[in-house]
Amino acid sequence: MMRVHRSILVLAGVLAGLMAASALDAGAETKIEKEFPLAAGGAFVLQTDGGPVAVKGSDRATARIVITSRAEDVESLYDFKYETTPQLVKLVVKRKGSGVGSWFSWGRNDGLAFEVELPRGARCDVGTAGGPIAVSDMQAGVQADTSGGPIDLHRIRGPVSADTSGGPISIEDVDGSVNADTSGGPIRISKVTGDISADTSGGGIDIAEAGGQVTADTSGGPIAVRFASGNSKGGSLESSGGGITIAVDPAAKLTLDAESSGGSVSCDLPVTVVGERDRSELRGELNGGGAVLRARTSGGGIRISAR
């Protein structure tokens, strides 16, 4: 019995020591700063096992990376691998492998975070397994992928791709196409010149000033799309979790195909109806017809009006 008691005391002492070390780590901070030449037209790639990422374009001719952590020993927890050329700066961050020390540190919140400044003309490809992503003021393509947080992309001159399984997506002011996909939140997109594809199973979709064709699909909320003036490119909108509201330029040439099994379909525009008009569906031509604008919902009504 005495040996068991002593063993318990020893184990309690070890755990207390580990908790004390963790508390000290929480009060400490590691800061790593790196800077590498990167030409406009080059690419920046970051793949990390954890942490939020913030990227901003600037007039600099280098990629400046600032890594912070609440853990004093962050380089003992993660491997940081750099690959650099004038056309490419790549950083891969992997949590170190198994072992007793890794087991005890697995659940610790080490506060790993990344702040990056890039030449505006560089392409940006960022992926994290554990945090939000924010990218702004870039003049080339942006790809953002996270399995654990929201994505915010603003003022991008180039194609944009955003994918998250754990949060909302917000995209604004993009000169190019947009592809947004989330299984865990709403999507908000505005001021996009190119085609838009938005897909969510966990929230609504709100798109404003869409300059191209719009494809939107949700099983978790309503869809609202406001097409930019002069946009006659149509699209496909589908929801099983809410109604659909559409605003188009009255001068647009579109073929409308709208149907609801969960409500009525209304239209304030002078449409030439094709076939029989029914309260739950509408098929017709606006200004002689053109690209098809298709809308389907089983979770509410459909309203089409002038922007």
Describe this structure in words.
The chain is 12% helix and 51% strand. Strand 5 and strand 6 form a beta hairpin. With 307 residues, it is mainly β. It folds into two domains: 27-155, no CATH class; 168-307, no CATH class. The relative contact order is 0.10.
Short description:
The protein has 307 residues and is mainly beta.
What are the main properties of this structure?
single chain, 307 residues, mainly beta, 2 domains, 13-stranded mixed beta sheet, disordered N terminus
The major beta sheet can be summarized as: 14 strands, mixed
Number of strands: 27
The domain tally reads 2
Kindly provide the radius of gyration, computed on alpha-carbon positions and rounded to a whole number of angstroms.
25 Å
Average pLDDT taken over every residue: 88
How far apart lie the N and C ends? Answer: 81 Å
In helices, the fraction of residues equals 10-25%
H/E element order: HEEEEHEEHEEEEEEEEEEEEEEEEEEEEE
Strand content: over 45%
Instruction: Identify low-pLDDT runs.
Output: 1-28, 98-107
> Which term fits the overall shape?
elongated
Biggest sheet, spatial arrangement of strands: 5-6-2-8-10-12-14-16-18-20-26-22-25-24
Count up the helices: 3
Helices and strands: which structural class? mainly beta
